[in-house]
Amino acid sequence: MVDALGMDLAPIVDEQPDPLLFATVSGAHLYGFPSRDSDVDIRGAHLLPVERLIGLREPEETRSRMWERDGIEMDLVSHDLRKFVRLMLRRNGYVLEQLLSPLVVHTTDAHAELVSLAPTVLTSHHAHHYRGFAGTQRRLFDKNGELKALLYTFRALLTGIHLMRTGEVQPHLPTLLQEVKAPAYLPELIAAKADAEHGRAVIDTVSVGTDVDALHATLDEAQAETSLPAEQSATAALHDFVVRARTERAAAVPAQRDASPA
Predict the structure, then answer these.
(1) What is the DSSP annotation of 36-96?
(2) Dihedral sign, CA of 156, 158, 162, 168?
(3) Are 63 and 149 found together in one domain?
């Protein structure tokens, strides 16, 4: 498949030892501020066979791999479906962004069903995820002065505010700038990031601190006023989904063996 990055990523899917339910592009490409040397972050969920989950050995629920392809660093992280769903239920905005990413490398009917269940996971407490992530990136910016960390800080806060106001997970920073009031200098920072993945931010740090604090206050206000529920309603449906997906895979394997030539 050739995705929006202009790369044929289908071989990556074919190389996986267990079937992928979905794979999408995350990171700076999803957030709308990739640089010329940004790595390609591929995230997804795979399906382990039943015997790997019920035996004595601990299952490898997360699979990660980094490599270079045509001079571009590739980073693949995939979770077994059960772990991915558990992360969804932990008010983890990061995995929801991966699930809902429009930069699709590989999809299935199971992916579509999981996407349809995503709204039932959302709660007012997802604001904590974005508040915490923004705080981590702000501390990183204070330490190294990198533009990347500063953009991640603003992106997280604006995504959280937009989610609390609309119930929509929107991680794309240029889009968010049209929806949420933000500092006027952000488009200039996005343009600067395109030239260097690890460049330093040339900006008044005092003004940045004031603006970040103001967005934290806006996120607090948006959370207090949100129509999102305090608790998710997805556990039963997601449990049934995981059981069904695993059962269907178990049933398909003998069928495939029976169909193999003697």
Answers:
(1) TT--EEEEEEE---THHHHSSSPP--EEEEEEEETTEEEEEEEEEHHHHHHHHHTT-HHHH
(2) negative
(3) no
Query: Residue 83 is part of which domain span?
Result: 10-121
Contact 137, 152 (CB under 8 A): yes
Residue 246 lies in a domain: no
Identify whether 136 is part of a domain: yes
Residue 21 sits at φ, ψ, to 5 deg, of: -80, -35
Q: What is the pLDDT of residues 129-165, one digit of tens each?
A: 999 999 999 999 999 999 999 999 999 999 999 999 9
Tell me the C-alpha distance between 110 and 106, whole Å: 11
How far is residue 183 from each of residues 61, 163, 240, measured CA to CA in Å? 41, 19, 44
Q: Identify the residue whose tokens are 């240029």.
A: 174
Chain center to CA of 61:
17
Report the C-alpha gap between 19 and 15 in whole angstroms. Answer: 10
Q: What is the 3-state secondary structure (H, E, C) of 169-222?
A: CCCCHHHHHHHCCCCCCHHHHHHHHCCCCCCECCCCHHHHHHHHHHHHHHHHHH
pTM of the model: 0.89
User: Does residue 43 carry a pLDDT above 80?
Assistant: yes
Q: Are residues 142 and 95 in the same domain?
A: no
